[in-house]
């Protein structure tokens, strides 16, 4: 049976996901077979496994850090917000319906058997499981029905380390307040605390660390500095969504939709030296980008009306007339079409006109498409011509289908995919630019259109991510007391000691 350790946080965005990923990488480097586990994840960034099941991308990132294939058992419950007070509920990779927050709060204890089934499967296969909590264990209004923090720690009998974010200020109050709001049994589960995202000289913290240790009777396991790495953030709290500076010769503007999903599709673009990716939500932020991308969304029709009402649609159309490349992914692809119809009330019923930039008509349906795909780009002319004939891979997550009356963007098997017209293209395939030849073709094409030498250099995104995980692991190993952490887990530290 696997050994376990759980990482909880004082709040959302305290850096739990990265600490978990870093620990997994360290443990993998030290020869253990390890896996991540998060019983319930709320996120619009999701992934489709090889068997066509949907899970949160944070656990996919952590699985990559652990060097293993992602499995829905690493994230048995995924909540995808559809409104401010409701979510689509996905259990073991399949959507079971939409629930209001109050309805789900009453229902979620029914999912404990599903959670434990997944945990038991992982427990038999791996040496160590690193569990991630959600939000804070001190949210006292939610504790009675908790299935993701101390409630899960009790179910799995997991020792806990508590992570706080010093970058936001108030770190000692975060950690002390969280511990003090816990019940005695829960306090006993906490074996140490970690201060995350530190900038500066650690010596300045020492008086506070001593006082904190005295007050909470828990050791400080380390102070992790802010690390300059590019890894996938979990969701809309990502700092990347707030960046709007042009730092490269190629400027790509991504529309920051209210219900934006899978913005991780564009991480590969950000990783290319000389390319800047900006997330914009106002006309004044758009400027004159070299490419405009409309990403996926959980609420296509509502977000289309948002684009229309704030004036961005007119600006996008003006850029299209001028020849600026426009690209849509999934919901963004649907928006670029002629019509969107919702006869089954998947998004609230009714129909709206799309932007009319490509020749597709979309009808929403109750059945969700989730599958991994491989395809090849059709022969295209104009600004996307550099992509012609290139192979790509990715995955689809969408409700309904789009019928094209014009040129397809690509071919998947014997089926046409997406659409292309003039300088506007779209596809249902998330991650379509992750393939090395696709990102090279896109950057080469945008550079030629701009009249500059291509900013692309030999680049392997998979290798790039591996290096990022190693950088993260080094930071964890250098700044946390790994001997104590191994002791908490209950296994021997295999790391060779430096003389």
How would you sum up this structure, described in words?
This protein has 499 residues and is an alpha/beta fold. Helix content is 31%, strand content 28%. The protein contains 16 helices and 26 strands. The strands form 6 sheets. The protein has a 6-stranded parallel beta sheet with strand order 2-9-1-10-11-12, sandwiched between helices. It has a 6-stranded mixed beta sheet with strand order 15-13-16-18-26-25. Strands 19, 20, 21, 22, 23 and 24 form a 6-stranded mixed beta sheet that branches. The longest helix has 19 residues, at 461-479. The protein is globular.
How are the SSEs placed, and which strands pair?
Blueprint: E1 3-9, H1 16-29, E2 34-37, E3 40-42, E4 46-48, E5 54-56, H2 57-66, E6 77-83, E7 86-91, E8 94-100, H3 101-107, H4 112-125, E9 128-132, H5 150-156, E10 160-165, H6 171-180, H7 184-189, E11 190-198, H8 206-216, E12 220-225, E13 250-255, E14 260-261, H9 267-270, E15 275-280, H10 283-286, E16 291-294, E17 296-297, H11 300-309, H12 312-322, E18 326-329, H13 331-335, E19 339-341, E20 351-353, E21 360-377, E22 391-404, E23 410-412, E24 415-417, E25 419-421, E26 424-427, H14 436-450, H15 461-479, H16 482-489
Parallel strand pairs: 1-9, 1-10, 2-9, 3-6, 10-11, 11-12, 13-15, 13-16, 16-18, 18-26, 19-21
Antiparallel strand pairs: 4-5, 6-7, 7-8, 14-17, 19-20, 21-22, 21-23, 23-24, 25-26
Helix pairs in contact: 1-2, 1-15, 6-8
């Amino acid at each position: 049976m696997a050994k376990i350790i759980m990482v909880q946080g004082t709040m959302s965005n305290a850096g739990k996901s990265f600490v978990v990923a870093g620990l997994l990488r360290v443990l993998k480097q030290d020869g253990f077979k390890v896996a991540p586990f998060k019983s319930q994840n709320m996120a619009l960034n999701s992934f489709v496994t090889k068997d066509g099941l949907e899970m949160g991308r944070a656990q996919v990132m952590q699985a990559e850090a652990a060097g293993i294939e992602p499995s829905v058992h690493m994230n048995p419950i995924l909540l995808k917000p559809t409104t401010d007070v409701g979510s689509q509920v996905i259990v073991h990779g399949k959507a079971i319906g939409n629930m209001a927050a109050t309805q789900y709060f009453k229902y979620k204890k029914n999912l404990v058997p599903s959670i434990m089934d997944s945990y038991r499967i992982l427990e038999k296969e791996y040496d160590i499981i690193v569990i991630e909590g959600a939000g804070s264990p001190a949210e006292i209004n939610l504790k009675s029905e908790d299935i993701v923090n101390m409630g899960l720690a009790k179910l799995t009998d997991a020792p806990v380390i508590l992570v706080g974010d010093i970058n936001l200020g108030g770190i000692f109050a975060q950690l002390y307040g969280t511990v003090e709001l816990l019940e005695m049994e829960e306090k006993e589960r906490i074996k140490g605390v970690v201060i995350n995202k530190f900038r500066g000289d650690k010596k300045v913290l020492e008086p506070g660390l001593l006082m904190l240790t005295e007050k909470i009777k828990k050791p400080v396991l380390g102070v992790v500095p802010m690390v300059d790495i590019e890894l996938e953030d979990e969701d809309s709290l990502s700092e990347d969504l707030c960046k709007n500076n042009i730092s490269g010769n190629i400027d790509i503007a991504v529309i920051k939709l209210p219900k934006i999903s899978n913005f991780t599709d564009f991480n590969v673009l950000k990783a290319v030296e000389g390319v800047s990716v900006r997330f914009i939500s106002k006309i004044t932020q758009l400027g004159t980008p070299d490419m405009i991308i409309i990403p996926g969304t959980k609420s296509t029709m509502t977000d289309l009306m948002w684009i229309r009402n704030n004036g961005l649609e007119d600006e996008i159309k003006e850029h299209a007339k001028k020849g600026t490349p426009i690209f849509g992914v999934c919901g963004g692809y649907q928006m670029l079409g002629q019509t969107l119809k919702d006869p089954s009330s998947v998004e609230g019923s009714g129909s709206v006109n799309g932007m009319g930039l490509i020749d597709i008509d979309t009808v929403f349906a109750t059945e969700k498409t989730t599958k991994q795909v491989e395809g090849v780009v059709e022969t295209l002319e104009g600004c996307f011509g550099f992509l012609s004939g290139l192979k790509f891979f990715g995955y689809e997550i969408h409700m309904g289908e789009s019928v094209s009356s014009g040129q397809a963007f690509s071919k998947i098997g014997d089926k046409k995919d997406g659409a292309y017209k003039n300088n506007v293209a779209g596809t249902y395939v998330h991650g379509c630019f992750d393939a090395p030849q696709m990102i090279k073709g896109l950057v080469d094409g945008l550079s030629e259109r701009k009249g500059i030498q291509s900013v692309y250099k030999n680049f392997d995104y998979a290798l790039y991510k591996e290096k990022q995980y190693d950088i993260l692991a080094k930071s964890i190993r250098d700044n946390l007391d790994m001997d104590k952490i191994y002791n908490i887990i209950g296994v021997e530290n295999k790391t060779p000691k430096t003389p």
